[in-house]
Amino acid sequence: MNEYKSVNKIDSPAITTLDKSISLSKSSYPSQNDRDITEDKTHNTNGVPLSMDQTSVHPLHLPETSNSNTDSQFNDLNIGGPVLSFYKNKVVLLTGATGFVGKAVLWKLIHSLGTSIGKIYVLIRNGSSKRSKIGRPTDRIRNEILSNKAFISLRRSMGADVFDAIIKDKIVPISGDIISPDLSITEQDKATLVRDVNIVIHCAATLDYHERLDLSLEANTLGTLRLMDLADDCKDMEVFVHMSLAYMNTSLPDDHVQERVYPMELGDPEELLKEIVGLELQDIPKTTQRILNYYPNTYTFTKALTEHLIMKRVDYNRLEEAQGEKAQWPVAIIRATQVGCGAYEPLPGWVDGVTGANGIIVLMGSGTQVLQPDIGDSVADIIPIDYLARIIIGSPTFMQPPGSRFILPYNEVLSGDAPETSLNVPHIKYFPLIYQVTSTSISTIQWNQAYTSIRSYWMRNTKTNLPTAGEHFVSNKTFFKAKSFMRHYLPNTFSSAPSTVGINNNSNHYSGNRTDLQLTHRTIELAARVVEATQPFLRHRWYFEHQNVKELHTLLESSSEFTLKEYRHLDWQSYMINYCFGIHTYIAQAPSGLRNITVPPKWDCALYSKYSALNGSILDRQIESVIFSLSDIEKRTDRMLGQIILSLEKPAYEPREKKKIDEWVSDFDASLDDWCNDDSEILKDGGNIAELGRWSMRVGEDDEAIKVVVLNDRRVGKSIRQIIETSGVPQQTVVGEAFKVLQRMKERTQIAYIWFAGSFLDSLFKRLFTTVRIREEDILQLKDKIKDKNVVYVPVSKTILDQLLVWYICLRFRLPLPAIVCDEALALLGPISDILRIAGAYFIRRDQSIRSPLNTAVSAAYTEALIHEHGALSMLIEKARSRTGRLQSVYRDGILDMVIEATLERNQTREMTTHRSTPSQSPIDGPDNNETNLFSPKETVFVPINITYEKIPELRTLIDQVLDQKPRSTKSTNARLSLPSNFLRPSATVAGRVNNKENGFQDQGKYGRVYFGIGEVIDLKREVEKAESSLNQDRKDTEKKDHLTDLVAKNIQKSQHKASIVSSVSLVAAVVLFGRATNGLSMDKVYEYVEWLRDEIMKKGVLLDWQLGEDVETIVPYGLNLLDSRTNIIIDGKRTAEHTNVRAVDHADNIMDLSYMANQLVEILLPEALFAVVYLSDGSKQVSENDLFRQFTFLVELLKDEFVYPWDRKKEFSRLFKRYIKQDILTVVNGTNTYEKKMTMDSDHTEYTRICLLASFLYPILDAYWITSCSLSALRDLPYMPRKIVPILSQWIAAHLISGRRTIYREVLSTEASQNAVDNFLVIGFIDAIHPKTKLSPDAQILLLELGVTTSEDLITVSDRMKAEVQNEQNKINEGKVKDILGQLEDIAALCHEIEKYRFGAEAYGKNQLQNAQVFDKCQNQIRSILRAEESYAVQHGMRLVREEDQMVQLVYSLKAASNDSMMGGSSHSNPRRVSEVYNLKT
Q1: Distance (Å, rounded) from C-alpha 296 to C-alpha 687?
Q2: CA angle at 133 for the pair 130 and 137, rounded to the nearest 5°
Q3: Which residues pair with 331 in a beta bridge?
Q4: Which of 81, 139, 142, 73 lies closest to 110 in space, CA to CA?
């Protein structure tokens, strides 16, 4: 052992109790105790923190919670482990519980030890003290601790009953103050503590780095010794834990720092204590100055002094024990470096006060640079607070009484070249135990890496502008100071900081009042002081020895609640972003509804990938231009982004200024030129090109090859021959026409264009959305399943961005890059069309009715050629973007048939692999049907995709189209129109509210989050096998092909539905809409219903955007912000509280906005909603299972054109029927097959309201169908009418029914639901479609044409097939089958009355049956009133028509006249009026 020699060995114990030997100052100056603030954490149902690479629940799901939760975690505590055994029935005395560390320790004790611990005495100052916040200890615990979000979240996860019982029975406040000689504890409390306490955890301290020396000494040093005096008196004292510092002495060299106490160069610690205590007030500054020559501040000095005095005391106690007196109890000194936010507990990113490293994050968020430029490669030694709390609580478990044979841990110096591992002498007991808690004991991150994550958060969430890590961390300090002063310090002084910190650019609720600004100033001032105090330590490169912590890691392995293994590979990037989020939320006081941007485990963000290989691709680099400067390029990109977003948000038919068009063309061409002439050569890198698949290096270089392939296609040749044979047109002319078709549709792109499109889309999506998230598992599985196969991506059509987003995801994640199939109408949309083109889009006429056979053949040939060339295609199977937010029925445009045919048949004789192909034969000759193909095409798979948008840019335009009204504009409305009604908010008001500049932020990320769901891959080969096995082989080839196409389309939609990821915003929208029945809901009810819907979705196993650790108090405000709460929602009062009323603005535009967002939820809970409507229908109290199933079936059949049903009707009904019985909502009546509806508003208000909430999803649609059936009462007077006017007629009737309060749902004004109803009425046989030329005279056709109804559009008439349906139904009854409600309805009037039974308020149907039956007749009378005219429209035009034709034309004209413009789309513009204006509906 000669290697070691003591540096500062002290032999003489000199102190028993300072309070007995020294007269202490009784000054009661305020002491700066730890402060409070909160944030988020994640744990699973067993309380085990979820690591970043493992979760027991899906990372988007919040675990179910219940007030009755009595998991073994909290009661029986069958978790096991040494920590639990040690603390069982033990009593803990905790100090500093209102501070950051103390609060975390208390949280962990409650969370993980539950009811097993004996009691937790919390020493806390009384409100009678001038130093304390107002309130008694009990009040302070309630107001300063239990009201903290960490404890609120814990109460919710444990269950209110369990948590409240622990607080009541286990947490005991003790009034006291550590600066008082007797701790200000009453005799009774002291007796209790002496009798009960086993463990003391001392976290209290004054954190004011510049506190007056004597006051700092009172709190940090003398307070500790007084607690040790109390511990000496305790009868069953077992362990004393003292919280200390790792950063104390700046004079230590940059080397290993041992788990030892280093000497005080100021002199003997005991003498120093006596000297300071005896100082007069005027002598304190002089002594303080002497101390500051060795220590940076009084806080670190008093902490170092305390450690020395603890050593003295332990040494003295050892002598007493050797003399047979009381044994020394174990002592642990916990030294921490910089304490940071929680990694997993209590909540991810949870912080409390401006302490530790918090000040650095606060100031960086304000745009102030606090990190020195030469420490970039130094370790950012930050430790998570939850890691520290586990060590503090876990360390006493393994400590034993030291006895009298131990060595005091004064620092040792290695002699010679002694190995580092010999610092701790084996088999020698050191006491007290010192635990140096440092990031080197888990994993480390350098400051430049931490800075990058911090910068990313603040740049994405505030207006703060920070330089990159490469710009900030430089070795030349002079250069750095000059550059950063000019670029960053001047625009980001402390005076500007309050306007940036605390503001989230996605919120509309920021209030820039004086209080907020003053609070922010105070916060920044405190942060600056904290950072100033820690700066001397950050420059050092110490390595803190942590052998004791390493041993503790091993010892805690068996304690699941306290294991430290999940911290060993901490994801520091996510941690630092969580840290910023915590600072932003709780210290900078961000607006309500701010959500964390950290991506959940097993997910990635396409815009900000956590993988450097993906995040550093060409998409993220800045192009090098030989002409334009970096500033010019940034300005150009910003102009282009502005134009593209404007083209998305504004209707396409609004003319653009020529100046803007020219500007776009100039910028677009300049960008393409820059990318084509990039000097970096990175675009020519073979690896980058290989990832894209086969794409042209230059535009047009494949033209000749593709021409040969397409014109030699068998289908094209056949079509050309048919045209020549039937029309006699020369072959050259027909071939030329085929080539023109090809030229119009083909893609026009090249490698450089593709990279530019990817880079531009990256900027666009970052401007529009906060994040685009995708599951890593989906990407990995998809790559495996599409390997060596052709792939066809099929996204649900919601926005024009769908296919561009799919294309971008493929480029980002290195998936086969698809050519994009677009309708030719998309080629005329200006900027967005240009982006589509360079991304590889080609344009097909999708409407088969206007697509010639030659066009179809060329389209099929070109599609096949591209599939084989690129190996990937992106297409839609719906007709257009969804205007309701729901899945739509499949549109038969023949493109899916083309894709299938491209795989299964051989229509092309060459593969387009060279650029110099030449035609081998004339296209009209074509290959023989039996000719063998020269290549073997790969198998084809379809990839269903469902993209969830929290909000889409085109929403306003889609709503205007649904309502058939003119677009919203900031321009004043025409003076001749009537005053706006209560149905619709004036456009100018909407624009004014939306464009409110109060928050001062650009609209970056205003459309929220995007979730990219990938469904189960559909293998075409397997689908062919299924189709062959399910279809009679005697069928014709065309029937087989149609069957296969239908089967593939059906399975694609089913897979799309399963790929849904529900946005939490849709939950909020659905609940707000539900409140219309009661004129709004209180905020606490909104919270309650949103949580219940969350639980319902989770039960179905559907992914939900509700991350672990997020609570409803965050989700609801966030949802209200995304729903345009200033425009669409009214929140009563200036401040939001539990009883604040929340209601939707009852105007058609606003309701349709909310409805679009809520409809995604309706798709997921559609079976539940259908069953709820059936349960609440027609007021019958008793019903049979067959009756319920018949009603359920009726609704499914009625709405089959409104929804896509990926589930089995009988299975879903059976599941829900059993559920209602299990929950006693349906009960058997006397053992019969009859069931009683037990649930009413009076019997169980909560459950009944939940049923009503589910039913409310469908009530607006049912009302729309009911009103459409009412509008068809016109067919009683007219034998037929144009199918096209039914939605307009329904809208007209709906307006009258709204005025008459016959419906509360503004959604009935939608022409989309009415059109779907007409389509379905045709399918189920209530009306028939006939061609106008078979019924109308030429004069009538001419008049209709003038009114915008073409002769190609069907007429509808009452079906005469109902008698056959009734007969079929009778046959079913005779055969003993269940009666079909639809089959029993004789006409449209009967259908109308049947739908009435399921409407909102249907439980009172019997009472109002007569009144309801009259609605159909009243609607007929209303229609008759507009048919009457002194001189009909036909007569005015000098035409004499038969009565039926005359009245039909008059009906069309009357509706046109009401709107004062074209209603049927005869002109190039949509109907230029608002719904309220056309029908003169007044407030």
Answers
A1: 54
A2: 105
A3: 240
A4: 73
Q: 549 — alpha (psi -120 to 50), left (phi > 0) or beta?
A: alpha
**Helix (H) and strand (E) counts in the chain:** 57, 33
Instruction: Tell me which residue of 1107, 1085, 1094 sits closest to 1067, measured CA to CA.
Output: 1094
Buried-state track 1158-1188, b at ≥16 Cβ within 10 A, e below 16: bbbbbbbbbbbbbbbbbbbbbbeeebeeebb
For the stretch 1094-1108, pLDDT in tens is 999 999 999 999 988
Is 329 a residue whose pLDDT tops 50? yes
Cβ–Cβ under 8 Å, residues 356 and 401: no
Q: How many whole angstroms from its chain centre is CA 495?
A: 34
Residue 1335 CA to residue 1167 CA, distance in Å, equals 42
In this structure, what are the phi and psi dihedrals at residue 242, rounded to the nearest 5 degrees?
-115, 130
Type of residue found at 85: S
pLDDT > 80? residue 76: no
> Per the structure block, which two tokens stand in for 593?
């509804």
939 close to 1019: Cβ distance less than 8 angstroms: yes
Distance CA 469, CA 430 (A): 43
Burial of 623 (0-12, 13-18, 19+ CB in 10 A): buried
How far apart are alpha carbons 320 and 15 in whole angstroms? 12
Distance CA 1216, CA 1189 (A): 11
Please give the C-alpha separations between residue 1247 and each of 158, 1060, 1093, in angstroms, as whole numbers.
Answer: 23, 27, 13
926 band by pLDDT with thresholds 50, 70 and 90: very low
Beta-carbon contacts of 421 under 8 Å, excluding residues fewer than 6 positions away, are none
Amino acid identity, position 288: T
* Pairing state between β 1129-1131 and 1141-1144: antiparallel
Per-residue b or e along 940-971, where b marks 16 or more CB atoms closer than 10 Å to that residue's CB: bbbbbbbbbbbbbbbbbbbbbbbbbbbbbeee
pLDDT tens, position by position, 431-471: 899 999 998 888 889 988 899 898 888 888 888 788 888 88
Residue 630: per-residue pLDDT: 83
Gap between the Cα atoms of 573 and 705, Å rounded? 49
What is the spatial distance between Cα 847 and Cα 824, in angstroms, rounded to a whole number? 10
Residue 538 CB neighbours (<10 A): 20
User: Between β-strands 91-95 and 331-336, what pairing exists: parallel, antiparallel or unpaired?
Assistant: unpaired
Residue 249, pLDDT > 70, answer yes
pTM of the model: 0.84
Provide the pLDDT for residue 1086. 94
- pLDDT interval class at 1175 (50, 70, 90): very high
> In 709-805, where do the E strands start and end?
771-775, 790-795
For the chain, the first-to-last Cα distance in angstroms comes to 96
Q: How far is CA 928 from CA 853, 917, 931, in A?
A: 20, 20, 5
Peptide bond into 432 cis (omega under 30): yes
Which of 394-408, 485-499, 908-922, 974-988 is predicted with the least confidence, judged by mean pLDDT?
974-988
For residue 752, give Cα distances in angstroms to 640, 688, 712, 838. 18, 11, 30, 9
Instruction: Write out the E strands in 694-805.
Output: 771-775, 790-795
C-alpha 380/C-alpha 386 separation (Å) is 17
Number of neighbouring beta carbons within 10 Å of residue 66: 14
Give the pair of three-digit tokens for residue 28: 């009661």
What digits encode the pLDDT tens for the residues 929-959? Answer: 444 333 446 789 999 999 999 999 988 888 8
Q: How confident is the model at residue 306 (pLDDT cuts 50, 70, 90)?
A: very high
Mean pLDDT over 414-426 rounds to 53
CB 318 within 8 A of CB 404: yes
Task: Check pLDDT > 70 for residue 1002.
Answer: no
What is the pLDDT at residue 383? 93
Write out the two tokens for 892. 């038969």
More confident residue, 881 or 1479: 881
CB within 8 A of 673, min separation 6: which ones?
Answer: none
